């Protein structure tokens, strides 16, 4: 995503929205550490550390909140229990 | 959930919404560490570490916020104290 | 709460809402570590560690946001300063 | 606050709202560690540790979001730049 | 800010709103550690520790969410892309 | 950004909004550690530490929530699935 511009937050499905949240989390890392070489060096460490993986998942969760709100939660119709 | 596409955020009950939040938290880990073998190796460690368990619970809490909002908090009717 | 299904997020009072937030935080732990035996073993450790207690309190705070929003903050009437 | 029931989230001022947020953060700790004796033992440790203090401040911040929203941010009037 | 009462969350600009968020983060620390002497002792430690600085920045970010919402994001006018 | 005043939260694109979120995260650090010399000394450490990078990404994510909400998620038009 390094060279990608972030165009918009709308996606067709929650699945694509989740992928966008992952990209946003990565983008937050890339801006602080632009060297792909160093990021690749770090990967074997954090990807085998449970606490690091949980922390990554948390950043994704925060971005997914944003993306889901932007897409109005991909609601197709008013649910039955709507008031 | 690895092969599951995330279809929508609407669920019938808060219980199902909580389960979805758990799956979203797992999905955030799986994307960073796709190897199920390595994830299974890590499990005995973090599942017996109180701080890791609390951290997992936090990620679930963030996703549950999103899922609950998407479902308009599963409100069946306007509560009495509604203004 | 292990056997309890989460029925709804509406509660009569903020106090009950806080209790629900605590249960949701516990539920997030139970799903990752279903063994009550192991959870009981961990308890003396994290319940005497200030940082663990603060972390638990944070998860409760996140769930309380959700429960409070679901209950429209238990507002009985429009406050005076409402615009 | 141990014996206090949480009655409502409305307060007269942001200052009182902040105090309520602090109480909610403490309440989250008290539920996990009900012994005031143990909590008093822990206090000298975390109250002199910068990272613990920052963590406490974060829990307060999350609860203050909830309390501020419940009070509609204590807005007395529509600000000039309102749209 | 120790002696300041928190009067309101409205500010003229985002810059002032950010300053308020910083004060709220400090206030959360001061309530747990009221001694300015001890806080001054801790300062050289956390202000030279990257992880502590990032954690402080996170607390500020959470309060800035609250202050920004309270000020309706300091919007002067409806943006072009408003729907 | 040290000398920049934060003028407004509106940006033309999500990309610019993300850049603003990064600046806000940095600003939160600069206020606690105003010395650029010390910040530059810390940089090689945290920029090569996976957990620090993830923590920075989390602060950016929180600010991006604020900026995205301020910009009404840069929606150009009501999406098809709008209710």
Automatic annotation (TrEMBL), chains A, B, C, D, E, F:
Species this protein is from: Lentibacillus amyloliquefaciens
InterPro entries named among the record's database cross-references: Hexamer_Tyr-coord_heme_pr_HTHP, HTHP_sf
Name recorded for this polypeptide: Peroxidase
Pfam family, any one: HTHP
GO molecular function terms listed in the Swiss-Prot or TrEMBL record: peroxidase activity
Keywords, sorted A to Z: Oxidoreductase, Peroxidase
């Amino acid at each position: 995503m390094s060279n990608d511009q972030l165009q918009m937050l709308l996606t067709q499905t929650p699945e694509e929205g989740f992928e966008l949240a992952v990209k946003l989390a990565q983008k937050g890392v890339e801006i602080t550490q632009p060297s792909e070489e160093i990021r690749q060096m770090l990967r074997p460490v954090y990807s085998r550390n449970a606490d690091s993986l949980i922390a990554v998942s948390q950043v994704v969760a925060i971005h997914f909140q944003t993306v889901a709100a932007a897409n109005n939660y991909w609601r197709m119709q008013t649910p039955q229990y709507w008031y």
